[in-house]
């Protein structure tokens, strides 16, 4: 008969923090139960949904940006603006449908505030892209990834606490 598996001490604490539940562990079922419970709880988390939607839209933005600078030879700031407009439009639809749902505001006010904060995010993104490309002298693609990452925090805060405030 095989010996009982040994679990790292921190695993139980991590499981309790993530799932909010304490499992009675039994041999081989621990991994499956733990995995299923963690996935269920992650899907319920608004931040996790925001990250998934954000990553998807960031990929669309990054691919569009690269396509525009590589194939159409557009100037990088113009390509950036176009790729952001496409990604932001998609992000609004997905955020409303899957992440935040309805806000306490009318759809008109919600959309206008979304556009306003998206314009601010665009300006922030442009400045960050310009800074890392012109001043720091990084590869334009690395600059784009940095800009997307930094602006993601701004986007989450403004959308959660202002645009889609319940």
List keywords for this structure.
166 residues, mainly alpha, 6 helices, 78% helix, globular
Low-confidence stretches are 7-19, 22-27
Query: What is the count of DSSP helices, taking H or I runs of 4+ residues?
Result: 6
Helix-and-strand structural type: mainly alpha
Mean pLDDT: 82
| Count of discrete structural domains | 2
End-to-end separation? 55 Å
Our estimate of the beta-strand percent is under 5%
Task: Explain how this protein is built.
It contains six helices and no strands. The protein is mostly helical and 166 residues long. It folds into two domains: 9-44, no CATH class; 46-163, no CATH class. Helix 3 packs antiparallel against helix 4 (76-99), helix 3 (46-70) packs antiparallel against helix 6 and helix 4 packs antiparallel against helix 5 (107-135). The longest helix has 29 residues, at 107-135. The termini are far apart.
């Amino acid at each position: 008969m095989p010996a009982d598996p040994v679990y790292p001490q921190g695993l139980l604490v991590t499981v309790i923090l993530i799932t909010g539940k304490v499992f009675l562990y039994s041999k081989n079922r621990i991994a499956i139960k733990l995995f299923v419970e963690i996935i269920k709880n992650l899907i319920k988390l608004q931040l996790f949904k925001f990250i998934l939607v954000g990553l998807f839209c960031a990929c669309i933005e990054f691919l569009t940006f690269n396509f525009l600078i590589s194939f159409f030879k557009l100037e990088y700031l113009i390509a950036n603006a176009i790729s952001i407009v496409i990604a932001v439009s998609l992000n609004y639809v997905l955020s409303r449908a899957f992440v935040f749902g309805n806000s306490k505001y009318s759809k008109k006010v919600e959309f206008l505030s979304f556009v306003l904060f998206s314009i601010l995010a665009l300006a922030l993104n442009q400045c960050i892209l310009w800074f890392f490309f012109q001043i720091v002298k990084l590869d334009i693609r690395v600059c784009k990834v940095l800009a997307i990452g930094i602006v993601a925090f701004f986007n989450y805060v403004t959308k959660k606490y202002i645009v889609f405030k319940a």
